[in-house]
């Protein structure tokens, strides 16, 4: 069984997509061993608990500094035995120690086609606001490995979504989630669990399922 830990900050619809994929059998031999939120009361924690998944809040505010906070996170995740860490709407910038501790074992879902609309300050609705402001006609979502930078790691999988006349950031966010994020996140996890993803010269290559 391939074990994953999911880090969240909010509603947790991406977490839900992973839970649903495991429960309906489309995501095989994968189990969520832990869900961790930085925010007390994040609905994602409730979603996990409803499905019998161990969930807890580890808040940066409870620690003297970022180093102590991330040390606690590293310890918690190591103890869970997770093979992969999935950032599913986790809004805390990772420390380099954390990234180093789980090198090549952290993935993130971002709601645009990287390298468009990504990097510092591009999160949540802001991403969609900027896409609409620029007037692009196609956007989408990306699952990528996490490295030291913001949204700079090797791209594993992307899916395009059309922008429609009259879209608001909220409408577009919902369409990107439904048509792209909730599909490619479980797909990327499955591929990694099956050993079908490797990196080469800073790029990720995902082999098709046989
Ligand atoms: C998603 O749009 C994800 O791409 C971004 O944050 C949002 C999280 O949504 N990183 P949810 O908590 O999974 O509903």
Helices and strands in order:
Blueprint: E1 2-8, H1 13-23, E2 30-37, H2 43-50, E3 55-57, H3 66-80, E4 84-87, H4 96-101, E5 106-110, H5 125-134, E6 138-145, E7 155-162, H6 169-193, E8 197-200, E9 203-206
Parallel strand pairs: 1-2, 1-4, 2-3, 4-5
Antiparallel strand pairs: 5-6, 6-7, 8-9
Bound molecules: 5-O-phosphono-beta-D-ribofuranosylamine (GRF).
C-alpha termini separation: 20 Å
Corresponding CATH superfamily of the largest domain: Formyl transferase, N-terminal domain
Strand order of the largest sheet: 3-2-1-4-5-6-7
Question: Overall 3D geometry?
Answer: globular
CATH architecture tag of the largest domain = 3-Layer(aba) Sandwich
| Number of helices in the DSSP assignment | 6
Q: Care to count the β-strands?
A: 9
Strand content: 15-25%
Backbone CA Rg: 16 Å
The description of the largest β-sheet is: 7 strands, mixed
What would the CATH topology of the largest domain be? Rossmann fold
By CATH reckoning, the class of the largest domain would read Alpha Beta
H/E topology pattern = EHEHEHEHEHEEHEE
Overall structural domain count: 2
Low-confidence stretches: none
Determine the structural class based on helices, strands and strand pairing.
alpha/beta
Measured as a percent range, the helix fraction is 25-40%
Q: Mean of residue pLDDT?
A: 97
- Give the bound compounds: 5-O-phosphono-beta-D-ribofuranosylamine
